[in-house]
Amino acid sequence: MNSRSKKKSRDLEISSYSHVNDTIKIIYGSEDAVTKGVEFMNNVKKKMDLCYDSKAPSIVLDVSAYKNGYIDIRKRGGKIRVITEITKENLEYCKRLLNIVDEMRHLDNVKGGIAINEKEYMATNILHESKPLTQVVYSNVRDVVDQQQNFFNSLWNSAIPAKQRIREIINELAQRKIDIFSALDNNIRRLMISYLQETNMTMSQLAKKLNITLQAMQKHFTKLIDAEIIKKNPDGIVSLTNLGKILMLHITPIQFVANNSEYLKTHDMFLLPKQFVQRIDDLQDMEITLKKEKEKIDNSFFEEAEYIKIITVQNCFKIKKSEFPKLVRKKVKIFHIEETDTQIPKLRGIELQKKDSIKYNYEKKITKDLPLALAVSNKEAYLTFKKNKNIDVQKIIFSRDSKFISWCNDFFDHAWNSKDTP
After folding, report:
1. What share of the chain is helix, strand, coil (3-state, %, to 5)?
2. Out of 130, 155, 250, 344, which could bridge 62 as a Cys pair, Cβ 3.0 to 4.6 Å?
3. Do both 328 and 250 map to the same domain?
4. What residues are paired with 124 via a beta bridge?
5. ∠ CA 231-181-94 to the nearest 5 degrees?
6. Contact 281, 346 (CB under 8 A)
7. Bridge partner residues of 398 (DSSP)
8. Range with the lowest mean pLDDT among 80-94, 253-267, 377-391?
9. Can you say whether residue 314 is alpha, beta or left, with left for phi > 0 and alpha for psi between -120 and 50 degrees?
10. CATH of the domain at 217
11. How confident is the model at residue 346 (pLDDT cuts 50, 70, 90)?
12. Interior CA angle at 410 toward 405 and 415, to 5°?
């Protein structure tokens, strides 16, 4: 007998025991393990009891052989009892599992899994979410089955009803939402999160950056810890949790709204398409000027432009016809959207004939009901919103920030390509 055959023989000896009709064996490989599981469920007459960890509900529901086995047992009049650990991560699976078992209970810290029917016992300590079992222990030895049934009954008596645990988790999640909103309702805490997005820090470094005492920061720190937005690592460094990192994607717009609340309260931002409201924080690096002459675009706008896009509403933002020869020489492409009720003086406006449009590399569209006026080039952008349905020419927003320019470009393209802009 060669060495490979000897090894295989030893494996078989270790993997199985049989005496008359009594069997204990270990089954390897997902195909054989699933086949044995289906055979085990087919042998159920009146009841099947199972205890398994938090990964198992996904396995039962996502592996059709197991799910169909449960359903067939109940169709035959069999009763299924399950003990598992119900967590917020597997909550939805557990809710669905309740529909294909008779009773289910929750128990903390369950590891591996066991199953008992009238005459058989199966177990595994290897469970992977939504994947078939790859190794199981099987036995039909009467003493083993009885021992495991007694063990299951003991666990069953210690477990709590699944619906009770599900209610607890739902309440915990609701409280978590309250904790999160409460944690974010303070500007100092929002700043803490913003600084931690840039780099991890010690509490002393955070306090110094915020210009507050350690004692004053402690209450804010505790609030964010309790909401699981930040964490303190063993080395004393404070960092964002995964939840905190996700929240940061939404905090910046909130911070923008808080910082510009007076302006936003008086301007008709709600008229913007939803996708631009969601990106409103792209405008954060901006300057609001009270100079009315900003209604006329600065010369630098034309001098540095490679392209120009303008939305003229209620006569706000215009190009003098005298500017066109300069732009022609520089081969600047001009796109212009004009609101239908805009009245532009013939001498100052851009009422061009078709031949002039070609000459000046100029395209124009007419539309209606625009919520803003803007002028954007590759270098800078001007922007103003409606206030009580009229364009605010007193407060013009200006920026050279790339995100600001991108927002204005995207809004212009949205309006240009709109079906309402022929």
Report:
1. 50, 20, 30
2. 130
3. no
4. 113
5. 75
6. no
7. 287, 382
8. 253-267
9. left
10. 1.10.10.10
11. very low
12. 130
Residue with tokens 């929002």: 190
Contacts of 75 (CB under 8 A, 6+ apart): none
pLDDT grade, residue 6 (50/70/90)? very low
Rounded to whole angstroms, the Cα distance separating 345 from 275 reads 34
Question: CA-to-CA distance for 394 and 380, rounded, in angstroms?
Answer: 19
User: Which of residues 135, 164, 193 is at a domain's end?
Assistant: 164
Q: Where are the beta strands (DSSP E) in 14-89?
A: 16-19, 22-28, 47-52, 79-84
Q: What distance in Å separates the CA atoms of residue 98 and residue 57, rounded to the nearest whole number? A: 10
Secondary structure (DSSP) of 371-385? SEEEEEESS-EEEEE
Which residue(s) pair with 22 in the sheet?
Answer: 19
User: For residue range 267-324, what is the model confidence (pLDDT) as tens digits?
Assistant: 888 889 989 988 888 998 888 876 554 445 666 777 778 899 999 888 888 777 777 7
CB 78 within 8 A of CB 44: yes
| Residue where a domain stops, chosen among 205, 238, 259 | 259
Angstrom CA distances, 177 to 10, 119, 174, 228, 250, stand at: 57, 48, 5, 11, 14
**Residues of the domain holding 150:** 14-164
State how far the alpha carbon of 266 is from the alpha carbons of 253, 263, 269, 312, in Å. Answer: 18, 6, 9, 21
Q: Give the span between the Cα atoms of 183 and 181, in whole angstroms.
A: 5
Q: Element (H or E) spanning 386, and its range?
A: strand 381-387
Report CA dihedral (403, 404, 409, 414) to the nearest 10 degrees. Answer: 90
Q: How many residues does the chain have?
A: 422
Beta-strand pair 238-240/287-289: unpaired
Angle, helices 64-75 vs 30-42, to 10°: value is 10
Do 65 and 158 belong together in one domain?
yes
DSSP 315: T
Give the least confident one: 60-69, 94-103, 291-300, 305-314: 291-300
Tokens of 222: 């505790």
